[in-house]
Amino acid sequence: DYSRKYVIKNSPLTVGVDSKGKFNLIEDPALVSLGQPLPESPIPVKSVHNTNHVITQNSPQNSESELTADKKREIASYIQEMAKLYGFCLQQAESLGAIDEDRRAIATTLFISAQKKFAL
Question: How far is CA 52 from the centre of its chain?
Answer without folding.
Answer: 38
